[in-house]
């Protein structure tokens, strides 16, 4: 599979960072979310602002990250990681804790971080001013992911005729070693393209195609159904799915060309014509 995974995120902290294993040298971990904004995408009607989860368990930047506070504006470069984990929920009927096994969570792992400024005073002046600052000054770079990956699932055409959406999965080998994830060698993000890009992806992409995706990352709330292990009822709990929505896509290798598509369509038309003749006149 291909290897390129690059994230740039410029945004402000939604809350103070969570420090895990505080005071344990070499074992501390930091997690926080930043609010970002994406550029316009034709036919995409989702949220304009996205809160991205940042996770770091290295040592080079740990002290700098521990000093961050809510509303600090930061410029982060890094990679995205997708981890498999078990997700817990409680049955609303009997209160038993149940586990959804093999769930996933996606976060940005920083390789560099620069604090640009603080926007707390802007927030205190007007609660929507920090978002306006992102929109005015940082929209081009606030939420950008560059991926070179191999298509590993058949593209699916979703949505409507007026608002098409194409969904497929990429395989991306990791190029950045994370010591606490040494046994994970690849990530498998879902791509959701929209509008004309969706129609092109559905026609041209196939398993094994190599593509370059310039996208933004978003978390979308979903409901997951689980059966209580104690009382047996089915209930829903709030989960989230991570999607990469392209600004643009470049087809690099092993995709269907226009000539190949035309040949396939011509063959299919002849087969359908022959079948129609057989249905009407019977086989010779």
Strand proportion, as a percent range, falls in over 45%
- How many helices? The count is 5
- Tell me the Rg in angstroms: 23 Å
Quote the distance from N terminus to C terminus.
49 Å
Structural class: alpha+beta
Q: Summarize the biggest pleated sheet.
A: 13 strands, antiparallel
> Strand-and-helix sequence, N→C?
EEEEHEEHHEEEEEHEEH
Principal-axis shape equals: globular
State the helical fraction. Answer: 10-25%
Can you put this structure into words, describing what you see?
The chain has 284 residues and is α+β, with helices and mostly antiparallel strands. The chain is built from 5 helices and 13 strands. It has helices spanning 62-66, 120-125, 129-137, 195-204, 258-281; strands at 4-13, 18-20, 29-37, 49-56, 72-90, 97-118, 143-151, 156-159, 164-173, 186-187, 190-194, 210-227, 234-253. Strands 1, 2, 3, 4, 5, 6, 7, 8, 9, 10, 11, 12 and 13 form a 13-stranded antiparallel sheet that branches. The chain is globular and about 80 Å long. It starts with a strand and ends with a helix. The mean pLDDT is 92.
Summarize the structure.
The chain has 284 residues and is of the alpha+beta class.
């Amino acid at each position: 599979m291909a290897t390129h995974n690059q994230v740039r995120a410029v945004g402000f902290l939604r809350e103070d960072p969570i420090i895990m294993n505080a005071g344990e040298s070499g074992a501390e971990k930091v997690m926080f979310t930043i609010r970002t904004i994406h550029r316009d995408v034709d036919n995409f009607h989702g949220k304009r602002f996205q809160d991205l989860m940042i996770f770091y368990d290295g040592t080079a930047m740990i002290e700098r990250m521990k000093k961050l506070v809510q509303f600090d504006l930061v410029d982060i470069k890094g990679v995205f990681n997708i981890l498999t984990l078990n997700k817990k929920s409680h049955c609303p009927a009997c209160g038993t804790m149940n586990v959804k096994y093999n769930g996933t969570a996606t976060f940005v792992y920083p390789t560099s971080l620069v604090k640009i400024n603080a926007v707390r005073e802007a927030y205190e002046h007007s609660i929507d001013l920090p978002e306006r600052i992102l929109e005015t000054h940082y929209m081009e770079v606030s939420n950008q992911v560059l991926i070179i990956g191999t298509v590993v699932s058949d593209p699916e055409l979703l949505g409507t005729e007026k608002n098409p959406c194409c969904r497929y999965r990429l395989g991306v080998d990791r190029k950045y070693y994370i010591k606490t994830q040494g046994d994970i060698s690849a990530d498998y993000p879902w791509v959701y393209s929209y509008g004309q890009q969706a129609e092109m992806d559905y026609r041209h992409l196939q398993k094994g195609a190599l593509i370059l995706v310039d996208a933004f990352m978003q978390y979308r709330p979903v409901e997951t159904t689980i059966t209580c292990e104690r009382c047996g009822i089915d209930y829903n709990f709030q989960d989230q799915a991570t999607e990469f929505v392209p600004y643009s896509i470049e087809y690099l290798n092993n995709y269907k060309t226009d000539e190949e598509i035309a040949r396939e369509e011509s063959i299919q038309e002849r087969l359908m014509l022959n079948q129609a003749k057989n249905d009407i006149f019977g086989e010779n």
